[in-house]
Amino acid sequence: MEIWQALLIGLFAYLGRNQVPWLFGTTGGWYGIGRPLAAGLICGLILGDVKTGVLCGVAVQAIFIGQITPGGAVPSDLNLAAYIGIPLAIVSGGTPETAVIFAVPLGALGVALHNFTMTVQAVFAHRADRCAERADASGVRIANIAGTSISFFERFFIVGLTCYFGAPFAEGLLKAMPGIVLNFLAVGGKMLPALGFAILLKQIINERWMIFLFIFGWVFTTSFKLTTTSLVFIAIALSLIYVMARYNNVRTVSANAVATQPQKMVYESEEGDYEE
Fold first, then answer.
1. What broad class describes the main subcellular location of this protein (predicted)?
2. What is the pTM of this model?
3. Of 16, 85, 107, 160, most Cβ neighbours within 10 A?
4. Three-state SS for 271?
5. How far is CA 17 from CA 72, 91, 118, 151, 178, in A?
């Protein structure tokens, strides 16, 4: 890997980092190019192997597809896991399972780095408050620039230098591993995406019978050799049928409930309107 490739990957890693204001803020950054699927495409374009990059991105994305951030607590840093794990897997000649193996510990490391960065940035936030009390506009500006620069140095240099110096290490590590260890890692790498989908299903399935929809989709796909695009359109059609049927059923029940309510009779007298 060339130094410019490593630094360019580091730049995209910074742009896709959490709480970075560029690229439409969190929407285009953390939830855009910060996702492993987008990171796989970007790293593949930079390193000249788009196919492997996308496959690695899909594999890494599948692990964390059910991840949520309750109360702002990030369980795993997808950005660091993707922008280091995927390039190392590509340059070392590994498989998508290799990217998964790299991504899991890197995601945990990314959370530690993120928490450390946020702690250091709090110092500059308090400094900006003190400067604001003294009406020191220049001090406030410097404190804000210095605080946000920490995120840049933390992500740009760590990712860039790790990709550059870690590529030979990752390649040598894979070559030195015996076949039985590689097979074990390959099996584990295929099981982790299944775990990610299981976590996602646990969140979106409200009723037990809905699990049969998942089983139906899996059997339907394997039996008729459908592509993912075809399956998406079938799933959208079934979802619309289910939602419309449930909505119409609710309207019918509501209409029947209104019809069965006793009607009040209103008549007019000299004193005014009366109901009975």
1. membrane
2. 0.69
3. 85
4. coil
5. 14, 23, 13, 8, 36
